[in-house]
Design a protein that fits this description.
heterotrimer, A mainly alpha, B alpha/beta, C mainly alpha, B: Rossmann fold, 2 domains, globular, C: two-stranded antiparallel sheet
């Protein structure tokens, strides 16, 4: 927003996708990182850009996971078709949940998303025949990427699947960046800033919020689908409250000021989970404290922290640079 | 009373009533705004002026009554739809997009006249867009060019009040609702604002104005409606209002005659 | 005995439990305008308190008193030293902070008592059934209905009959008005917050012998509390009662017709109410 070259973030995202294979040993871990980065991006579109705090992202993640799993298991769909169908399911679910939830504002909206999240959990639990209940869907195949019957990209090894996911990740990032820079994205920012004024200047605020919700649902559904294919299973936990909470957590901790911050948040969470869970199974407690700390002291998240460090670095470099107090108000 | 319920009535409000539970804020108000005129609404605090604005612009749903713009009923439309019909407002308590730049505030407001174009999630705003051009024109007219890139929340009070009015104008409205546009402003700013509102008349705008500054009200209004306790007390040309006993009583003294004759 | 009558009474019992769970959330938001997403965690602590104290051999009646009291005190401390600083921040911050606290508390519970659930037996005096002609019903559940009804009466009496109650009711209408009354508002806030937490904990203590304890019951409780408040109307004591009973009865009835759908039904009911009355049955429009 304040930056002169918004492409800066896209380049960073591409760099991350390229650098991960060099820094991480596990292809699965790297893939999971990008998957959650996508989910966090989608959550940030709602939180950072529209001002909507959704505890329901797990709904779309889980539904995306179940649909992709189901389509691959029962219909042997090609990879891309399964994945895009999951996006469609996510979008549809978001339209329904969004329609209900957006009728309320502020805290009530948040409460509703949480309640709906529980509802879909119970729904998934009850429909055992479709979702496998407690066990989830198992043995989900991972077809190679084919276009017109030709294998374009095999997906059997972890790093091969990673490349498929990485391409989607970059595509999603570019698309989301474009959306946030577009007239639509800027209108969302206005709505977040002052909803009453946005309505007073002519915008149907509910419609805009709903569209943001649907976009978010689609991308989150995609993330869920990719995870089901990664793990080969679509467990009940993909639609539980915990996943909604975690996605929101990553988004907040990363920072809501820009989209790349969400990638950082997701990376922090996934990597910490991987490294800490061996040492201390109750590592989530740390994230609980981190969430409190970020909310009280570090509202710009990890990205904000890095930004501050970078700036103080540059200032100490230039030493005598006059610290001009940014002028408050001019008298005209 | 206003005998001119004639063809050039742009906005006709009839028996407008707004109740909040048991409390009646506005009761049976009739109001006609004629095209190309400045119509002021005055009255002591609590008279219901701002609530009347809320119901006319759609910020708040009407309890009963009818509001016609160019012969078409708009009282059942939500506020944002009325903007597209040609109603636009500024707020008594400054309500800007605090974290967005002044230029962006105006662009967003201008775009609001054709909001569905803003749903295009793939499209960047171009400087040649109608909304951007409108924003540029307003920046110049309202003397805000030099702060165009500043966040609205960082402006001085006078600049913010100017931006308030500018945003209301972004929608190229037929009827412009200005709610105490000069509140809190310094003397020079007030004069500037007065000239500006007056010039709008010449450009074909119709203005509905709530003001406490009687100098402005008396010097630029074509019609004045006086409200008290939710009802219309009297309506007429400035000269008539100034001499009306009921108005003097309502205002407890000479405040009405303030300013230049 | 008629199975529907049985489920209706079960529903009333569950409903009373839901009322006790949700009333604190509703009143706290009504007066303090503070959104407490750790409300479920207080329920959790109450339930585990019941389990632990039973393990230690403590008399159930003492647990019924001590559990809510301890949680209430902890909540009061949290309010005084943490939440008070946060009131002026936007609601989203309240949510995030209390979510963080709930997260930490859940992990603490798992650390202390493990990730799996435990059963809790009702106290000896309340085991077995009540027989009254044709009517056979578990004693403990009758007890729960009794406690719930008593709580409802006490709260209603306080709200309508005491100065504190008048303040809470006034504050639900307007926070500005309350601060203008010039009372020691901070102390009142602390008290109300502690009370809200204590009632959640009480619900936990009561629930433990019925459904056992597990670390994830806090999330479920939070969600149910939200549903009750959405259905009944936020900030309304009567709303919490009506909402709680409605939700409880719907859930119970459903468990006869399609058992897996019982929990689901709570949310379907919520969605229905939202369609027809967006502000809840007794909510202010």
């Amino acid at each position: 927003m304040k930056y002169l070259t918004p492409h800066r973030f896209t380049l960073l995202a591409i760099m991350v996708a390229l650098v991960l294979p060099l820094t991480l040993k596990s292809g699965s871990l790297a893939t999971e990182l990008l998957i959650f980065a996508m989910a966090a991006l989608a959550c940030n579109l709602l939180l950072g850009y529209t001002g909507l705090m959704s505890f329901g992202q797990g709904i779309f993640y889980g539904l995306g996971s179940y649909s992709a799993g189901w389509l691959l298991l029962h219909f042997n769909l090609p990879l891309l078709l399964a994945v895009f169908s999951a996006m469609g399911v996510g979008a549809l679910a978001a339209a329904v949940v969004g329609w209900f939830s957006i009728r309320q504002r502020g805290v009530y909206f948040v409460m509703l998303t949480l309640a709906f999240s529980q509802m879909f959990y119970f729904l998934a639990y009850s429909l055992k025949d479709v979702t496998g209940g407690d066990n989830g869907l198992l043995d989900i195949p991972r077809p190679d990427l084919e276009i017109f019957g030709q294998v374009v990209l095999p997906t059997s090894s972890p790093w091969q699947y990673y490349s498929f996911v990485a391409i989607l990740f970059v595509a999603v990032f570019i698309a989301m960046q474009r959306v946030s820079d577009s007239v639509f994205g800027r209108t969302l920012l206005a709505i977040r800033d002052n909803e009453a004024r946005a309505a007073a200047v002519g915008y149907n605020v509910k419609a805009f919020k709903l569209m943001a919700f649907v976009l978010s649902g689609a991308v989150t559904g995609l993330a869920g689908a990719l995870h089901a294919i990664l793990a080969g299973i679509s467990p009940l936990s993909n639609i539980e409250y915990h996943i909604s909470e975690s996605i929101l957590l990553m988004t907040v901790i990363g920072g809501t000021g820009n989209l790349f911050a969400s990638v950082i948040g997701a990376a922090a969470y996934v990597l910490a989970a991987d490294w800490l869970s061996e040492i201390w199974p109750r590592w989530m407690m740390l994230f609980g404290f981190l969430l409190i700390a970020v909310t009280l002291y570090m509202q710009q998240g990890i990205w904000g922290l890095l930004e501050k460090l970078y700036k103080s670095f540059r200032q100490s470099d230039s030493g005598m640079e006059a610290k001009s107090l940014t002028a408050g108000k001019d008298q005209v | 009373m206003n005998a001119h319920a004639s063809n050039d009535t742009l906005l006709r409000a009839r028996a407008v009533t707004k109740k909040y539970g048991d409390f009646t804020a506005v009761s049976g108000v009739d109001l006609n705004v004629r095209k190309g005129t400045i119509h002021s609404v005055i009255g002591p605090n609590g008279a219901g002026k701002t609530t009347l604005f809320h119901t006319l612009t759609g910020s708040v749903p009407i309890t009963s009554g009818s509001i016609e713009l160019e012969g078409q009923e708009v009282s059942n439309l939500p506020g944002h739809r009325r903007v597209q019909r040609g109603l636009s407002r500024s707020f008594q308590v400054t309500s800007l997009f605090q974290n967005l730049t002044v230029a962006e505030n105006l662009r967003i407001a201008a775009q609001g006249r054709a909001p569905w174009a803003a749903l295009k999630a793939w499209r960047m705003a171009k400087t040649t867009d109608a909304a951007c051009l409108m924003a540029d024109a307003l920046l110049e007219r309202f003397n805000l060019i030099h702060v165009a890139g500043r966040a609205a929340g960082l402006l001085s009070h006078g600049q913010q009040r100017r931006l308030e009015v500018a945003m209301a104008m972004s929608a190229r409205p037929k009827v412009l609702f200005l709610d105490e546009p000069t509140s809190g402003m310094g003397v020079d700013d007030i004069n500037e604002m007065k000239e500006l509102i007056h010039s709008l008349k010449g450009e074909g705008y119709s203005v509905l104005l709530i003001e406490h500054n009687m100098d402005i009200v008396m010097s630029i209004s074509d019609t004045i409606t006086v409200m008290q306790l939710g009802k219309v007390l009297v309506e007429g040309a400035p000269a008539m209002i100034r001499n009306d006993e009921r108005v003097r009583t309502a205002y407890l003294g000479n405040m009405i005659t303030g300013g230049k004759n | 005995m008629n199975v529907y009558l049985l489920q209706l009474i079960n529903g009333i019992g569950t409903g009373m439990l839901y009322f006790v769970l949700a009333v604190g959330l509703s009143i706290i938001f009504g007066l303090l305008r503070f959104v407490n997403f750790a409300h479920g965690a207080f329920f959790l602590l109450g339930a585990y308190g019941c389990y632990q104290l039973a393990q230690l051999g403590l008399n159930f009646w003492w647990t019924l008193l001590l559990g809510p009291l301890i949680v209430g005190c902890l909540a009061m401390l949290a309010e005084t030293y943490l939440f008070r600083k946060v009131y002026k921040l936007p609601h989203e911050m309240h949510i995030l902070i209390t979510v963080g606290i709930a997260m930490v508390l859940q992990e603490v519970v798992i650390t202390q008592w493990g990730p799996l659930g435990h059963n809790v037996s009702p106290p000896e005096a309340l085991q077995g059934v009540v027989i009254w002609g044709d009517f056979v019903y578990p004693k403990y559940r009758v007890f729960v209905i009794g406690v719930g009804a008593m709580m409802a009466l006490i709260i209603a009496a306080v709200l309508e009959g005491t100065r504190l109650g008048a303040i809470v009711r006034a504050g639900s209408e307007s926070t500005e008005m309350v601060s203008l009354l010039g009372l020691n508002i901070k102390r009142i806030f602390s008290l109300v917050f502690a009370f809200g937490a204590a009632t959640a904990a009480l619900a936990g203590v009561l629930a433990a012998p019925i459904r056992g304890v597990d670390p994830f019951m806090g999330v479920e409780a939070l969600s149910v509390a939200f549903v009750v408040v959405v259905v009944g109307g936020m900030g309304s004591f009567a709303g919490a009662l009506v909402g709680g009973l409605l939700v409880g009865i719907v859930q119970s009835m459903m468990s006869t017709i399609w058992p897996p759908g019982a929990n689901l039904m709570i949310y379907v009911a919520m969605a229905t109410v939202l369609l027809l009355r967006p502000n809840g049955i007794l909510g202010r429009a």
